[in-house]
Write a structure and sequence with these properties.
The structure is a single chain. This protein is 44% helix and 20% strand. Helix 5 crosses helix 9. The two termini are 33 Å apart. A hairpin with a 5-residue loop joins strand 12 and strand 13. The protein has 2 domains: 140 residues, Rossmann fold, CATH 3.40.50; 165 residues, Lactate dehydrogenase/glycoside hydrolase, family 4, C-terminal (L-2-Hydroxyisocaproate Dehydrogenase, Chain A, domain 2, Alpha-Beta Complex). The protein has a 6-stranded parallel beta sheet with strand order 3-2-1-4-5-6, sandwiched between helices. It is α/β, with parallel strands linked by helices. The structure holds adenosine-5-diphosphoribose (APR). The site of adenosine-5-diphosphoribose (APR) has 29 residues, from helix 1 and helix 3.
Length: 311
């Protein structure tokens, strides 16, 4: 298993470290435009492997030749948010960065699975698919696991119970229009709506939608990376070990939920075939309306993104 992580910043480096610690790859290539940074970070991580009891080998590079024939490529390069910015505000900067990185990586690893993390995530996944022509089982985005993890963490805080017992689901775009689904949320099998009053649940849903922004407002110089990196690792693990976990990921819809040619978060089965299946939930009218709003918002930003890369 050879994994390439593009971007040796906060998200990329943390992802590489977690993957290596879990020994999910034999080799990890960390790529960045900054000279010395991927080399230094990869070597530092490599030197931690005897302590972590992992035999993963890590290498830092500035070009893509050595990433040849990667099995999985994780795209994290790009600008991160500063306070007051929405993810969509990153579009102009990241459309060009993501398209140049993906073109290079794809030249050397046309058979890899691609996980897109750079924001605005759904739009970047769409652009990367159009650039490479890859089908949706091979290229998808990380967002829903992160949003759902935040939602689960807040529910755990509210109830004072184990995170592990909380199951939840968030659909839609990775932004303010995301659609948390209390009806599909349970705590050890008990519907969350039986445990948390509507006003508190509403507050949790709101905090979840603004969860990324909350971290940005603390950090001031960048955005979240521990939870995003952990979410990427969960996707990689499900693919590498063929776990066939059902996880919310950003994928191209092909008629599911009544939509085509748009990338948004929905539950999928992740296994050795990548995104092996999209799961279609039976939504009620309110949930459908929220998803519609989210899809239409993502579509609008996709159009802007396609113009930026002249497609
Ligand atoms: N090729 C390779 N690396 C690049 C390029 C490029 N063309 N352009 C920028 N980079 C690198 C930067 O040098 C930096 O090391 O991408 C890295 C980004 O790291 P950070 O600034 O720490 O940003 P990070 O927090 O990792 O976020 C990266 O992930 O979650 C999203 O919204 C977030 O879009 C952002 C991305």
């Amino acid at each position: 298993m050879k994994i390439t992580v593009i971007g040796a910043g906060n998200v990329g480096a943390t992802t590489a470290q977690l993957l290596a610690n879990a020994e999910l790859a034999n080799e990890i290539y960390l790529v960045d435009i900054l000279e010395g940074i991927p080399q230094g970070k990869a070597l530092d991580m490599y030197e931690s492997m005897p302590i972590m009891e992992s035999d993963t080998k890590l290498y830092g590079v500035n070009t893509y030749e050595q990433t040849k024939d990667s099995d999985i490529v994780i795209q994290t390069a790009g600008m991160a948010r500063k306070p007051g910015m929405s993810r969509d505000d990153l579009l102009v900067a990241n459309a060009n960065i993501v398209s140049s990185c993906i073109k290079e990586a794809f030249k050397y690893s046309p058979n890899a699975y691609y996980i897109i993390v750079s924001n605005p995530l759904d739009v970047m996944t769409y652009l990367a698919m159009k650039i490479t022509g890859l089908p949706r089982n091979k290229m998808f985005g990380m967002a829903g696991i992160l949003d759902t993890a935040r939602y689960r963490a807040f529910i755990s805080m509210e109830l004072g119970v184990s995170m592990q017992d909380i199951q939840g689901l968030i659909l839609g775009g990775h932004g303010d229009t995301m659609v948390p689904l209390p009806r599909f949320t349970s705590v050890a099998g008990i519907p969350v709506t039986d445990l948390i009053p509507p006003d508190r649940l509403e507050a949790i849903v709101k905090r979840t939608a603004g969860g990324g922004g909350e971290i940005v407002s603390y950090l001031k110089t960048g955005s979240a990376y521990y939870a995003p990196a952990a979410a990427v690792v969960q996707m990689v693990e499900s693919i590498v070990k063929d776990q066939k976990r059902i996880l919310p990921c950003s994928v191209m819809l092909e008629g599911e939920y009544g939509y085509n040619d748009v990338v948004v978060g929905v539950p999928v089965v992740l296994g050795k075939g990548g995104c092996e299946k999209v799961i279609e939930l039976k939504l009620n009218e309110d949930e459908k309306a929220l998803l519609h709003k989210s899809v239409e918002h993502v579509r609008k930003v996709i159009q802007e993104g396609m113009q930026l890369i002249n497609m």
